[in-house]
Amino acid sequence: MKIWVIIKIVIISTIGLVLLTFLTVDAPVKIEKKEMNIKDLPTTVELIGFEDQEFATKSIIKKDAVIFVGNHESIVLANDLYKMLNLKDGQFVIVSNISDAPWFIKRWQAHTKNEQLKGKKHLPWIYDRDGGIRNFLQVPTSDAIKYFVYRVDNNGVVNRVFIGKVKVGTIDGAMSESEIKENLLEVMNILK
């Protein structure tokens, strides 16, 4: 008799979790291919380290900036690319592409990992919870192992300059420092 009660609880819990996930995931927005100019940026963004505050996007993404967009695994490379490029403050922006994740992953797991990766650095690190930046940048996928690098030119036009990929498990140390540097060398050559 007790076994049937346990089975019912497990089934109801599983159905509840599936429903919760299904109901909290936003439908993907159709990406429109057009010229990307910073004058068309979403109005505000959320930054890691400044929760419950919104910042004017145009004060974060400016002319002559490099934008790194990464997801769960690939976001690990952002700090290494920043160090390798040796840019001035404000010229390198990181975007966490987490808009396709269920709300409970966005709120706890992904946010906590992004805070750890950012650490005490004063980098503008956009936590793109609603997908506004992802849609503006026309990021075609939220694949965990892909990353995208953009450059904003002097006219405010944003161009995608590189699409890269990391190993599965990079967030847990699956790539060595030399593999990471090798992975980013191609980006470096394009940006320099």
Write the layout of secondary structure elements.
Elements: H1 2-24, E1 36-37, E2 44-45, E3 55-56, E4 66-70, H2 78-85, E5 92-96, H3 103-118, E6 125-127, H4 132-136, E7 146-152, E8 157-165, H5 177-191
Parallel strand pairs: 4-5, 5-6
Antiparallel strand pairs: 1-8, 2-3, 4-7, 7-8
Helix pairs in contact: 2-5
Key phrases:
6-stranded mixed β-sheet, two-stranded antiparallel sheet, alpha/beta
Structure description:
This protein is 35% helix and 18% strand. With 192 residues, the chain is of the alpha/beta class. The protein has one domain (29-191): Glutaredoxin, CATH 3.40.30. Helix 2 (78-85) packs across helix 5 (177-191). The model has no long low-confidence stretch (mean pLDDT 84).
Low-confidence stretches: none
CATH topology: Glutaredoxin
Number of strands: 8
Structural class call reads alpha/beta
Distance between the termini: 70 Å
CATH class: Alpha Beta
The description of the largest β-sheet is:
6 strands, mixed
Give the overall average pLDDT. Answer: 84
Amount of beta strand: 15-25%
